[in-house]
Amino acid sequence: MNLTLKVWRQKNRNTTGQIVDYQVRDISPDMSFLEMLDVLNEDLLRKGDEPVAFDHDCREGICGSCNLFINGRAHGPEAGTTTCQLHMRKFSDGDTITIEPWRANAFPVNKDLSVDRSAFDRIIQAGGYVSVNTGGAPDGNEIPVPKEIADRAFEAATCIGCGACVASCKNASAMLFVSAKVSQLALLPQGNVERKTRVENMVAQMDKEGFGACTNIGSCAAECPVGISLENIAILNREFLTAKATSNNLA
Fold first, then answer.
1. How many CA atoms lie within 13 Å of 160's alpha carbon, on the beta-carbon side?
2. Where in this chain does the record put each 4Fe-4S ferredoxin-type domain (predicted)?
């Protein structure tokens, strides 16, 4: 396939970016989208031009690094798919493809298509964990958990933190991401000890990072590549209200 790419180029977070047109030729439909960008960068390097910066790591749909907005959709046109799993067979010869980074104040652009998602890391550091003494791994059956609860916790835990929920939300809300992390631990007995401080601290950090408010439109869940449910936002709201109603922290 021969394609026209309209790629966002930006030197750094302190400069103004712009869309630049590129042509790529002889693209195999069996290539992944990131492999197609590799071909573009090889062409640019041969010409002595600077390659396009974009984030990637595992290229197996696990790490959540491949955060690209493709033709107006997070991770591209195929539902339930990360950018690295998107194949060029989803496009046609002669297509024009617009490629942009995530658009959110809390996700500043580092360069070109690469964004800084460390805001998610700081939210996790605020409470997205269970405090335990280090040592040997505990026995897996030490704390029995009903299968239904374990399955719901596992489904919430599948969140890869890619940020597609933020990029697809008109308010750039991180509620789906935060709710998945809160729900995962709130559903399990191991998370009960810190459940009140966890949700208070994580929501406070989310607000501090500058993410917008949730309006329950559902675009976050629709574009989530791993299918995180809106039900988690309901769990987060319940956990937060319960924590505030019984907390000594009146802030």
1. 21
2. 150-180
